[in-house]
Amino acid sequence: MSKMVLQNTHTLWDGHSQLEMTEMIQQYDDGSTKSLKREVLKARDSVVVLLYRQDTKKLVLTSQWRAPIVFRGDNQPVIEACAGNIDQKDFENHQQDVLAAAKAAAIREVEEETGWHIAELDYLYALYSCSGISTEKLYYFIASVDEKIQQGGGVREEGEDIAVLEVTLQEAIKKIEKGEIVDLKTVVLIHYIQLHLVDYFN
């Protein structure tokens, strides 16, 4: 079976994320090899949480500007499920338990971005966001919320300015069909609900 082996790496950029230049050896089944250079974005693992209100059964989404989308020239804010990084303190507080660290990050991000309190948090799966370029693993959750406990809107010191939207499941599906929701992680979670929990939301 073929195999890829890391030979060397050096840092090209160290900022909000870290960009590494890696040197790989691709080993083929026939014994031949090929040297490859690949840029790797060393990004922190993150969480994404699709919220729904217990009382109205409406989905709670966020809308915010994202630098890569502006850079691409798509000059509009991104509608998405609540998301954010798992901080180092989350791992330190939950040593040897990555899922517990992810849950702690999910609770914090939901409160910061939306102001809602999570009543029940359900873990779905952990997936690589973009395995061709980034190391980020994204932990997917759905959660019910029961009361507003703070204003939300994100952390201004981190450059966030987040609006909170509430839509029905059918309205969310229409927004995907019309190209108004184009964030992959959000589409994955909305389709999960459409496939597995649609009766609850009808």
In short:
This protein has 202 residues and is of the alpha+beta class.
Explain this structure to me?
The model has no long low-confidence stretch (mean pLDDT 95). The strands form two sheets. Strands 4, 5, 6, 7, 8, 9 and 10 form a seven-stranded mixed sheet that branches. Strands 1-2-3 form a three-stranded antiparallel sheet, with no helix packed on it. The chain is an alpha+beta fold. It has six helices and ten strands; from the N terminus they run βββββαββααβββααα. A hairpin with an 8-residue loop joins β8 (116-128) and β9 (137-148). The relative contact order is 0.18. α4 packs across α5.
The percent of residues in helical segments reads 25-40%
Q: State the end-to-end distance.
A: 48 Å
* The CATH class of the largest domain: Alpha Beta
Got a strand count? 10
**Proportion of residues in β-strands:** 35-45%
Please tag this protein with its features.
globular; 3-stranded antiparallel beta sheet; Nucleoside Triphosphate Pyrophosphohydrolase; alpha+beta; 6 helices; single chain; 202 residues
Describe how the helices and strands are arranged:
Blueprint: E1 3-14, E2 18-27, E3 33-42, E4 46-53, E5 59-64, H1 67-72, E6 78-80, E7 82-85, H2 88-93, H3 98-114, E8 116-128, E9 137-148, E10 163-167, H4 169-177, H5 184-196, H6 198-201
Parallel strand pairs: 4-9
Antiparallel strand pairs: 1-2, 2-3, 4-5, 4-7, 5-6, 5-10, 8-9
Helix pairs in contact: 4-5
GO molecular function: hydrolase activity
Protein name: GDP-mannose pyrophosphatase
Organism: Commensalibacter nepenthis
